[in-house]
What does this fold into?
Amino acid sequence: MKRIKILTIILLLITSFNVSAKELDIYSNNAILYNLKENKVIYEKNSTDKVSIASLTKITTAIVALENIKDLDEKITLTNEDFKGLYEANAAVAGFGVGEEVTYRDLLYGLMLPSGADAAQALTRNIAGSNEKYIELMNKKAKDLKLENTHYVNPTGLDDNNHYSTVKDVETVFKYALQNKDFKKIVTTTKYSTLRIAKTLGMNYLEGGKTGTTGDAGLCLATLAKYDDTDFILVTAKAEYSKTTPRNFLDHKKIHEYIRDNYDYHEVVNKKDILVTLKTKYLKEDTISFTSNKNITMYLENTFNKNGLTYKYTGKKIITHKMNKNDKLGRVEIYYKNNKLTSVDIILKEKPKLSIIKYLLGHKLIVGIILLIIIILTTLLIKIKKD
It folds into this structure.
């Protein structure tokens, strides 16, 4: 029987397909690499462990500020309160001075580029009135972004047992912050020290980022990179400090270049591939096959072999004439080496057509009874007419 290929496939969910074949030897205890084009994790190491994140905290400090400042060019005057406790804590400062008149824009650059704690405290005082009230805004933002393993107690990232996050949560807030054009402009400025260090290491694919270092946090780094026509966020934490080597940058170089050299976009589904074939009941066709109306490519290891794909369908097993166009029949999950690559919905593109002959053949008893009744009634009518 002729097969009719009907397709409407909606891409539902792309899940993580992480580097597992190779354990990368890196200094950092925690890491996560996120593909922004496909919205999926490519590589991770202890990504949900609660850790100190040092000045990566300032990513949240900055985005909260940007969302609460009406005019970035409004001028404010710095006071003694903006510098209170910073020198005692040996915190990094941007170099502003008491009595200096600056704009919010100046403070944001001072916050993110030299990682100035003085800029952080000036922002918190002028936006919320105090550090404490500003921290409430930061924790509310964490809650809004569903950062379940993050809690802030200061805007600078200074060590505190109650101040913690995960590299996964930092990746989430960094991704969110990059949607803000002013934030992205700040972290990708060519004068940024992060980019200068990256350039000396040959990491020309880095577009921006944020460093962080404290005794508890170790060397931390969040970067935005671009290669393979794709943007990536990489966050690492807890690399041991070294006087001779920037270990956080070396980790980013190793991870990015491993992915760049060993990953690419591969065709997972061709529009000619049959994803599932379902049986029918009382239709003109015995089966209906579902194929893709477009090719589906994904960012995968270069060892990927399409022959290793397996399909798992869950949903309705029989297609009947009672179904309608656009009805959702079920879902096909596509796996590669036990890793789910993608999940799709299978939906009818057109209403199934009933076969009268097959319907009647499938209801022989009922048809027989109806015919018998018709014969009896016909006989009775003939007899009545004769009488």
In short: The mean pLDDT is 89. The chain has ten helices and 17 strands. The CA atoms of residues 224 and 233 lie 5 Å apart.
